[in-house]
Design a protein that fits this description.
Order of helices and strands: HHEHEEEHHHHHHHH
CATH class of one domain: Alpha Beta
Radius of gyration: 21 Å
CATH topology of one domain: Zincin-like
Number of strands: 4
Number of helices: 11
CATH architecture of one domain: 2-Layer Sandwich
CATH superfamily of one domain: Metalloproteases ("zincins"), catalytic domain
Helix content: 55-70%
Strand order of the largest sheet: 1-2-4-3
Length: 300
């Protein structure tokens, strides 16, 4: 890795760490504010605020330390054993040795779509998950290019923010849904005549999808280009990765196990949507642009 690219990546990583701290601070502030509002409305004193701040602390703790485990569950991945794909294991181990990286744990998503993702809060706890379709439909060189992309994310610590924000957004969505149902019950029991709870519930219902949008906008598309370039450098074969992207571009099969809040983790957009709005807020650059950049690297 040349000095200019190394300095650029370090600068980007500093921004990502600031994003992590900022997101957790905002999450704590929002939940604390909700607790304060409810405490004032119901005359709870500091009790309600304390409960919500405790909830924010728990979310932040689990987001940082255990989010990768929940994301594996969310993606319906299963641990892959060496006997199931020995050539794949050998390829990953070889790439990791060349880069001085610990070998990540490998998982398989049992789906025909071609995709992959990396997660884990650091290099020692990294996970790479690939779909069955990726292993079956791509050549070993093309799979090597995709894995090189994911290993570059691990090398650059990209997946740390991706993983943390994913779980935090999931918690917020669940919390908003539970709170909204609670509001409906309160209205049914005529406990909330003023409509304050309904207003708070409405704000929360809006905040959950906005959080998902924040995830999409917070993860820079430039990181995908950097990961593509890192894979090309790691494998010394940018055209293999370009070929993999071309096959994925032609296969419009979506990946059902990838939700809105986890889409940014994947190698390519798992929704395979042609909708203009989805493309506008996609975390991934257009595949055609990624292919063009890779071919430029090879002078093709």
């Amino acid at each position: 890795m040349d000095a200019a690219r190394s300095a650029f990546i370090k600068g980007q990583n500093r921004k990502f760490y600031l994003c992590i701290a900022g997101f957790m601070a905002v999450l704590t502030f929002i939940l604390g504010g909700i607790g304060a509002a409810l405490s004032y409305y119901f005359h709870w004193g500091l009790t309600g605020t304390g409960v919500f701040l405790l909830l924010a602390g728990i979310i932040n703790f689990f987001s940082y330390f255990f989010s990768h485990l929940l994301i594996i569950k969310m993606s319906r991945s299963r641990a892959l054993e060496r006997r199931q794909a020995p050539e794949f294991f050998d390829m990953v181990d070889s790439l990791c040795r060349e880069q001085g990286l610990p070998s990540p744990k490998l998982y398989l998503i049992n789906d025909d779509a071609m995709n992959a993702f990396a997660t884990g809060r650091d290099k020692k706890r990294a996970v790479v998950a690939v779909t069955r379709g990726l292993l079956e439909k791509l050549s070993i060189g093309e799979v090597r290019g995709v894995v090189g992309h994911e290993l570059t994310h691990i090398q650059n610590n990209d997946m740390r923010l991706m993983t943390i924000v994913t779980l935090a957004a999931g918690f917020i969505s669940i919390f908003a849904d539970m709170y909204w149902h609670g509001v409906q019950l309160s209205k049914a029991d005529e406990k909330d005549r003023s409509g304050v709870l309904a207003i708070i519930g409405f704000i929360l219902a809006l905040f959950a999808p906005l959080t998902a949008m924040f995830i999409q906008l917070a993860i820079s598309r430039r990181r995908e280009f950097i990961a593509d370039a890192g894979s090309a450098e790691m494998t010394d074969d940018p055209l293999a990765l370009a070929s993999a992207l071309e096959k994925i571009r032609k296969d419009m099969r979506p990946l059902p196990s990838a939700g809105v809040t986890t889409a940014h983790l994947y190698f390519s957009n798992p929704a395979k949507s042609t909708d203009l709005i989805d493309k506008l807020f996609s975390t991934h650059p257009p595949i055609e642009e990624r292919i063009r950049m890779l071919k430029m690297m090879k002078g093709a």
